[in-house]
């Protein structure tokens, strides 16, 4: 997978779109996965201190620490999709207006939940972020069909730890977005050229391309008897 940082993110509707989605039997959905790239909206959820929420997934394609999120439905904006998915996966009601875009990634997975599992699946995931209040955090209820654990980590711990490189890149993108917001605020204040230049250097460092090639992270899940390396390439 690979990603590019997003300064903004907009949802364009041309003409009058009405969703005609319907339930697909497993065999039909499996064929669809073999022929199409799914659009997913995934979230870097933070607390008021900037710590990042990770869920320990128990299903393919990423049965390890991962974003909260999933497949978008036709007609949904990424933020409205995130709102729906947060309700389903964490039992939280969060308005779409609270999300902001961070980056996007291209994913190819060796496994999937649908048969035949070894056919894998491919995604484009749009990464958004939302800050939860302490009250909202106390109301989190994990979907037991998706997760068996959760944790909060600092962005620095995520970057230094044994995590999927897509997660790590998204964490860097989040830090970069926060740094860019800081630069804009300094510009508004005026008479802060030195601070702006220092913050700009930090921003540029955060937006450097990650290392390509084989990632040191390896997806391992003993319960599913699965192991997979991650290869990082440019588009």
Automatic annotation (TrEMBL):
**What's an example of a GO molecular-function annotation for this chain?**
hydrolase activity
Keyword set, alphabetical order: Hydrolase
Q: Which cofactor does it need?
A: Mg(2+)
Q: Spell out the Gene3D superfamilies in the cross-references.
A: Nucleoside Triphosphate Pyrophosphohydrolase
Pfam families xrefs: NUDIX
What sequence ranges are listed for the domain Nudix hydrolase? 35-176
Q: Which InterPro entries match?
A: NUDIX_hydrolase-like_dom_sf, NUDIX_hydrolase_dom
Q: What is this protein called?
A: Nudix hydrolase domain-containing protein
List the source organism: Guillardia theta (Cryptophyte)
Q: Taxonomic classification, please?
A: Eukaryota, Cryptophyceae, Pyrenomonadales, Geminigeraceae, Guillardia
């Amino acid at each position: 997978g690979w990603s590019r940082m997003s300064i903004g993110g907009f949802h364009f509707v041309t003409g009058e779109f009405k969703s005609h989605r319907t339930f697909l039997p497993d065999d039909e959905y499996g064929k669809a996965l073999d022929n199409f790239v799914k659009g997913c909206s995934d979230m870097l959820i933070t607390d008021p201190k900037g710590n990042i929420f990770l869920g320990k997934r128990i299903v393919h394609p990423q049965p390890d620490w991962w974003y909260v999120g999933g497949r978008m439905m036709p007609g949904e904006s990424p933020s409205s999709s995130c709102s729906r998915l947060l309700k389903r996966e964490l039992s939280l009601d969060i308005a779409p207006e609270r999300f902001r875009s961070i980056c996007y990634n291209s994913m190819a997975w060796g496994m999937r939940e649908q048969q035949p599992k070894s056919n894998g699946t491919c995604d484009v995931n749009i990464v958004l972020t939302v800050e939860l209040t302490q009250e909202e955090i106390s109301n989190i209820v994990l979907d037991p069909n998706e997760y068996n654990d959760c944790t909060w980590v600092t962005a620095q711990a995520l970057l230094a730890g044994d995590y999927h490189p897509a997660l790590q890149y998204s964490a860097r993108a989040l830090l970069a977005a926060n740094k860019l917001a800081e630069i804009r605020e300094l510009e508004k204040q005026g008479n802060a050229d030195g601070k702006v230049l220092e913050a700009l250097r930090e921003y540029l460092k955060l937006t450097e391309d990650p290392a390509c090639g084989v990632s040191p992270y390896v997806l391992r899940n003993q319960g599913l008897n699965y192991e997979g390396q991650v290869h990082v390439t440019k588009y």
